[in-house]
Specification:
Layout lengths: L9 H14 L5 E17 L2 E19 L2 E7 L5 H15 L19 E5 L2 H4 L3 H17 L4 E20 L4 E18 L4 E10 L6 H15 L8 E7 L1 H10 L6 H5 L20 E3 L22 E5 L2 E2 L6 H6 L8 E2 L7 E2 L4 E3 L6 H5 L4 E9 L1 H4 L6 E12 L2 E5 L3 E6 H6 L1 E4 L10 E2 L3 E9 L1
Parallel strand pairs: 4-6, 8-15, 14-20
Antiparallel strand pairs: 1-2, 1-5, 2-3, 5-6, 6-7, 8-21, 9-10, 9-14, 10-11, 12-13, 15-16, 16-17, 16-18, 18-21, 19-21
Helix pairs in contact: 4-5
Length: about 450
Amino acid sequence: MSESNSFINMDRIKEIYNDIKNKSKDIDNIEIYMSVSGEEEFTVREKDLDKYTYAESGGIGLRLIKDGKVGISFTERIDSNYSINNLVENAKNSLNYAVSEIEYNTLIEKDEDEKSYDMINKDIVNIPNDKLKEISLSIEDKLYSLDSRIVNVPSAGLARYNFTKCIINSNGICKEEKKNSISYYGEVIAKDSNAIKTFFDVYSSRDSFFDADIFTKNIVNNVVSKLSAKPIESGKYKTVFTSKAMRTMIGAYLGLFSSEAVQKKLSLFQGKLNEQIASGIINIKDIPMYDKGLANTNFDGEGSKTKDLNIITNGVLNSYLYNNYTARKENRKTTSHASRGFKSPIGISCHNFILEDGNNTQEELISQIQNGVLVNSLTGTHAGVNAISGDFSLQAEGVKIENGKLAYTTSPFIVSGNILDFLNNIEMLANDTDYHHSSIYTPSALIKELSFAS
């Protein structure tokens, strides 16, 4: 741990909290939140270690509440009484510009005794650096060896992560959590007489198991298939979205479930609580402590103990995601979805967002289509998604389906539609969820119809 964040541990946070409390006797409520993250990365190139880096960042955020006003400040370094004085004074000064909302600006109440959650996987910690370098080199070596058309591996390697957060408030909340993970990545360039194509993939996990053969074979198969891509005719097609494409699509619309967006009338789901918004086979849950979850956490950004939430059941919208502020505006309890960094104000985000699997294989979904498309990747969600109307128009890649079989890889195309139509037109779900790319988990899905433009 770098010197700048050597103060970050539970005992030190308690000291800082007591110091701030003594300097803030005129304040109604106090909360301090700490986070620190570390990243150790091994990047290889041309059969040697190209780069090794270890980076660490973190700090402390302070929230003061007085007469319904919230003042915030943060620091990346506390090494003197002067720094703590500045932290307090900056938060007090920001109170002058805050709006008083006595009913809503409160801290959560104590919900359990002081807790320290250790989710560190020692197997990841104990992998020696020589072994990490060896794994990184093996990824590059396998990518080159699997096909002669692989002409370059611009990047290959892995990164080991650790993260700590803790929170203390004047209502008795005192919690700490530590966790870690590891990610492997590879990028390739393939070339033949007709085309040059690229592909990048990453595999993330909370355990130390990693199959380099499967990982690299998937990358090479994907890039090589692009070399023989052919255009498709524009029109409307019955479609299968792969687990990856579904993850991108659902992820682009996560903000629709935020109670903050709903209250600001920025969500398409406003006013649709307890209504059917999706096909009856759609069940979506947010599970903060999930066996395969990459975003597991025991408490949210306000210290509220996390719990499972049924968001959509049989196509019916059951709940939005709430933090304490938005929940109090509707006279209800938080769903423990407050998000934050030490520099940022309270927001809302999911934990492990799960569209439950169906009972079919992806092949069985494909077999339902005589003339259609398998969409395996989407790009451009930052510009091609309208969260207010629900419309989307995204660049995509995929495979043409003919007579229930995969026929040929397609050239890039544009797929368009509306998220509500998309959700309602899901006819079948597969059982092939990919658990190693993000905290959004989705299986492949058979969609009744979508518009395509080549």
